[in-house]
From TrEMBL:
This is Uncharacterized protein. It comes from the Eukaryota. It comes from Lentithecium fluviatile CBS 122367.
Length: 387
């Protein structure tokens, strides 16, 4: 065992000797340890102030180091893949030594290392090689609600534009459940991951992973959301217009039952959006930059209130959806072509028959109407429409 691992593993059964103080000792030791050497040669300096708190939990140690690598990326131009692997391997081995000697409660905390914010693929692989195999563990920290999920769900649920698809794919390859349901949000890891896939398909084509996209999106598995945008729950393909990844895959008359199911689910979503109805599932606006706690779905009482307020529009929505479901059965083309040639024109016709609103009444109610450009963008379904 190397010097860094010995320092972190020593006195692991003591209640007063924390992982934070052990790491500080390793970093500030006069003789160069393996970890300190890598930090120094990378051109950055480790700030141990974030680890000064004596009650800092073990699970945050890896997070701090991973974030260090991310936030100081400009200093790591000479940091090779081998050096990064050496760095995280040393830390993972040290944590494994601590786990083998610590109390059961502390050991269980270490099993949640895959949940920590900022973990990257290299760190995950090093943890796996060091013996940490709980890649599908459901976190249960009552003080950190984002931990109450599997690592795949947690990291998929985070900011879509910073999602590490390579890490998420690695979780799936190691047996992480795509279809695990979150007990509070009702969403699945599959559905959360689909939103990140949609982002990378539309914004970061170089990082798009077609193999992962097919594995995630080609599924009729539904989450437990309660929303009129979907019947019996949302399939992954309807998340954040993730279906655009699949538009070139064939015609609506394809004999594949899965394609038929997805076509109807996607058509329903587009009509729902066109009517401007309110989502009652765990929807977000655009690519989320907010923390997970800000996205709880509405309560049953709130859902009832929303449906009561929008009752007339809901009735029209269901009527139009029934008509389009009939029309699509005989259509010979792709879903995209059906929407352009049949769906949107039909919806425009329906809207033209709706009596204009009394502007005075609208002003009295304090309602802000969409400008024409905004309304057109909504009706056509912008790239950022979500559910």
């Amino acid at each position: 065992m190397d010097d860094a691992a010995k320092l972190l593993a020593s006195e692991s059964t003591s209640n007063t000797y924390t992982a934070s103080s052990a790491f500080e000792e390793a970093i500030h030791r006069q003789s160069e340890t393996q970890l300190e050497h890598l930090l120094q040669t990378s051109g950055t300096t480790w700030d141990s102030s974030s680890l000064a708190s004596g009650d800092r939990s073990l699970e945050h140690l890896l997070s701090d180091l991973s974030l260090l690598v991310r936030r100081n990326a400009s200093h790591f131009e000479t940091w090779t893949e081998d050096e990064q692997r050496e760095f995280f391997s040393a830390l993972a081995q040290a944590l494994a030594e601590r786990k083998s000697n610590c109390q059961k409660e502390e050991a269980n905390e270490l099993d949640s290392l895959y949940h920590v914010d900022g973990i990257n693929l290299c760190a995950a692989i090093c943890l796996w090689n060091a013996g940490f195999r709980e890649v599908d563990l459901v976190g249960s920290d009552p003080w950190n609600r984002h931990l109450h999920g599997t690592p795949l769900w947690t990291h998929s649920r985070g900011n879509h534009y910073t999602a590490d698809l390579a890490l998420l794919k690695w979780f799936v390859a190691r047996g992480a459940r795509l279809d695990w349901h979150h007990p509070q949000f009702g969403t699945t890891a599959r559905n959360e991951l689909s939103a990140a896939i949609a982002y990378y398909h539309q914004e970061e084509e170089a990082d798009f992973d077609e193999e992962l996209a097919n594995q995630v999106l080609w599924s009729d598995f539904r989450d437990k959301c309660t929303c009129l945008c979907s019947e019996g729950g949302c399939v992954a393909a309807v998340k954040m217009n993730a279906w655009t990844v699949l538009v070139d895959a064939g015609k609506v008359q394809d004999d594949d039952p899965l394609r038929q199911t997805l076509n109807l689910a996607l058509l329903r979503m587009k009509v729902f959006q066109d009517f401007g109805l309110t989502h009652t599932c765990g929807n977000r606006d655009k690519y989320s930059t907010e923390v997970v706690e800000g996205h709880f779905p509405p309560s049953d009482e709130e859902i009832d209130d929303i449906h009561h307020i929008e009752a007339k529009d809901i009735e029209s929505f269901l009527s139009v959806l029934h008509e389009l479901n009939g029309k699509i059965q005989d259509y010979d083309g792709t879903l995209w072509e059906f929407l352009e040639e049949v769906g949107y024109p039909h919806l425009d016709e329906v809207r033209s028959k709706i009596p204009p609103l009394d502007q005075e009444v609208v002003q009295e109610l304090g309602i802000k109407l969409l400008e024409p450009a905004e309304s057109e963008e909504w009706s056509q379904g912008s790239d950022y429409d979500v559910n």
